[in-house]
Write a structure and sequence with these properties.
heterodimer; A: 233 residues; alpha+beta; Alpha-Beta Plaits; 4-stranded antiparallel beta sheet; 4 strands; disordered C terminus; B: 172 residues; Gyrase A, domain 2; 19% strand
């Protein structure tokens, strides 16, 4: 009799077993094991970020491969000549002198404010304070047209210079110029993962402008007689 | 009579239990089928992402090694970008002062003094033989410079006519 009563309820095993299977697998998925759901979501995020990284690296690799090294070296030397990585006051001084000589104008004197004139390291930003390199020059100038010619000469010299002030009168002109210079910035250590900066359009624009300017040998001493390069400050 | 009643009651009870069993089994089967479908989907999803993870990781490490081999080119590009920005910045911020000086060259006018300060204001002292040239000079030199004005006009027995003109971009 009891046996018959037990057999009557055997079908209950099926839903109970199914429930147990579902509960245990849900517990496994929400637990801390390898296959839990949160880890699966994390893996998905990781793959997405890796995919992004791969896309960036592919683009970077293409940019690196297409670089024309010879042209790049040529462009870089031209731009370093235009804006040197360190203050080169003697070079700016010689530019002032040469510009005057080319036009038959006397450079009476030039002077500048003191400051460190250290060669900047290429790999790291140096400690030189970002102070402008300003020189004040006195020329003997007859008239405004001669002055205009002189200013034009100075504006097309390399390294570049900026005319800050002009005080013309009494047979002369006092011109305050700022010589261009900019130290190298440190290249980030994790740069391999960073995208490359957009440079082509700016480089090509600067190349076409700078090629128009006259160039000056970097070893020309500021004084025509002495071969020693003397710091005028 | 009571025996018949008892048998009828038992039969009804059996039918009720059978109905409950059918319902429970059907629901369990439906839930189980849905769960199995869900579990299979989850497994497929897991398999897909694990595979993709391995593939992208391998690709990233391969790309890193390739870019690493071209690190000199990267340094060159970064230097080019830095220097071109510096050159552009320097060129952008400098005005063509020679053009301003050329603008002052006018027939019949001698520039005695010109003070360019790099600001929007410049002072020019001119000397002329004909006073009408002062007006012509002011008109031309102050073209497009709304803040310009004549500061002084002087006549001297020995030096003749001279004037001090302020050329400025803003309002007077």
């Amino acid at each position: 009799m009891n046996d018959i009563a037990w057999r009557k309820w055997t079908w209950v095993i099926y839903p109970l077993f199914a429930g147990l299977v579902i509960l245990s697998s849900v517990k496994y998925l929400t637990g801390s094991g390898q296959g839990n759901l949160s880890q699966l979501f994390e893996r998905q995020k990781k793959v997405e970020s890796q995919s992004d990284k791969a896309t960036r690296l592919r683009a970077k690799l293409a940019q690196l491969k297409e670089l024309d090294t010879n042209l790049a070296i040529e462009d870089l030397s031209l731009m370093v000549k235009a804006v040197p990585p360190a203050k080169r006051a003697w070079l700016t001084g010689s530019e002032l002198s040469t510009a005057g000589l080319e036009l038959g104008i006397d450079l009476e004197e030039y002077k500048g404010e003191g400051g460190e004139v250290k060669e900047a390291s290429e790999s790291a930003k140096n400690n030189i304070a970002d102070k402008d390199m300003v020189l004040q020059a006195a020329f003997t100038v007859n008239d405004i047209s001669q002055l205009a010619q002189l200013l034009e000469k100075l504006e097309t010299k390399m390294p570049l210079m900026k005319i800050r002030t002009v005080d013309f009168g009494r047979g002369g002109a006092e011109i305050k110029v700022e010589g261009a210079w900019a130290p190298w910035s440190k290249i980030p250590a994790e740069s391999e993962l960073l995208t490359l900066p957009e440079y082509k359009s700016t480089v090509s624009e600067m190349r076409s402008i700078l090629r128009l300017f006259s160039s000056l040998p970097e070893t020309v001493p500021y004084s025509g007689e002495s071969q020693d390069i003397t710091n005028p400050f | 009579m009571s025996t018949i009643n008892f048998l009828i009651h038992r039969r009804e009870e059996r039918e009720k239990i059978a109905a409950i069993r059918r319902t429970v089994v059907a629901v369990t089967t439906a839930v189980l089928v849905a769960y199995v479908v869900f579990a299979c989907g989850l497994l497929g999803w897991w398999w897909y992402w694990v595979g993709k993870d391995q593939k992208t990781s391998a690709e990233v490490s391969q790309l890193l090694s390739q870019t690493g081999k071209l690190s000199e080119n990267e340094v060159m590009i970064r230097k080019l970008a830095q220097r071109s920005t510096a050159v552009k910045g320097f060129l952008t911020n400098r005005g063509r002062v020679s053009e301003r000086a050329k603008y002052l060259i006018q027939p019949g006018v001698q520039i005695v003094r010109w003070n360019y300060t790099g600001t929007e204001k410049e002072e020019v002292e001119i000397s002329v033989e004909n006073p009408a040239d002062i007006d012509l000079f002011v008109r031309k030199a102050s073209e497009g410079r709304k803040g310009s004005y004549m500061d002084k006009i002087i006549w001297d027995k020995e030096k003749g006519w001279s004037a001090v003109i302020v050329l400025a971009d803003g309002a007077k």
